Amino acid sequence: MTTVHTESSGRTVSEPRWLTPAQQRAWRAYMDGHQRLMAALNRQLQHDSDLTIAEYRILVLLSEAPDCSLRMSELADGVLSSRSKLTHQIRRLEEQRMVRRNTCLEDGRGVVAELTDEGMRRLAAAAPGHVEAVHRHFIDLLAPAQLEVIGEAFGRVDAEIGKHSG
Q1: CA angle 61, 62, 66 (to 5 degrees)
Q2: What is the model's pLDDT at position 132?
Q3: CA distance 45 to 38
Q4: What pLDDT score does 7 carry?
Q5: pLDDT tens figures, 10-22
Q6: Cα–Cα dist 39/145, whole Å
Q7: Domains of the chain as residue ranges with CATH
Q8: What is the Cα–Cα distance from 49 to 127, expressed in whole angstroms?
């Protein structure tokens, strides 16, 4: 958003709403902290379980779904991914026998991704180390009140952006 004002000459000028020093500190701390956190969690998963954080997230969503399966479109929305990127990720998971794709039985048109026994086994093996890394790099660094604020703040950000991107 920009601020619009009129110069004495009558010309309209738009200026960006620059961040205040406090806003810039918060924004940069978020960006840097988020990037470092995701990199640390990704490294842990790859080292301990040979999974990327994106693959782990797909397996988690499938494990939580009824019958451990989701339409590809729902899965893409759940992992906040494009359909084409998800298709490539699912193909890699299929090659490792963690996921299989089937035609949707409800309408015969859609494609469903389904978690296999191997996928569930790999997820169960990866989860304890991942959860410990989440504690070490995030949860244990913050007070309960800080976690509550983060949850509320990013719940709001997600909801607002979600309203406009769907």
Answers
A1: 110
A2: 98
A3: 11
A4: 61
A5: 667 788 989 999 9
A6: 25
A7: 52-166 (1.10.10.10)
A8: 9
Q: Can you read off the two tokens belonging to residue 48?
A: 């301990």
Q: How far apart are CA 94 and CA 90, in angstroms?
A: 6
Look up tokens 């989860």; give the residue.
127
With a cut of 50, which residues of the chain have pLDDT below it?
A: none
Angle between helices 117-137 and 21-49 (to 10 degrees): 140
What is the per-residue pLDDT for 12? Answer: 72
Residue that the structure tokens 């494609």 belong to: 111
Beta partners for residue 61, in sequence order = none
3-class secondary structure for the chain?
Answer: CEEEEECCCCCEEEEECCCCHHHHHHHHHHHHHHHHHHHHHHHHHHHHHCCCHHHHHHHHHHHHCHHHEEEHHHHHHHCCCCHHHHHHHHHHHHHCCCEEEEECCCCCCCEEEEECHHHHHHHHHHHHHHHHHHHHHCHHHCCHHHHHHHHHHHHHHHHHHHHHHC
72, amino acid identity? M
pTM above the 0.70 mark?
Answer: yes
**Checking DSSP bridges between strand 69-71 and strand 2-6, what pairing results, if any?**
unpaired
| Number of residues that this document lists for the chain | 166
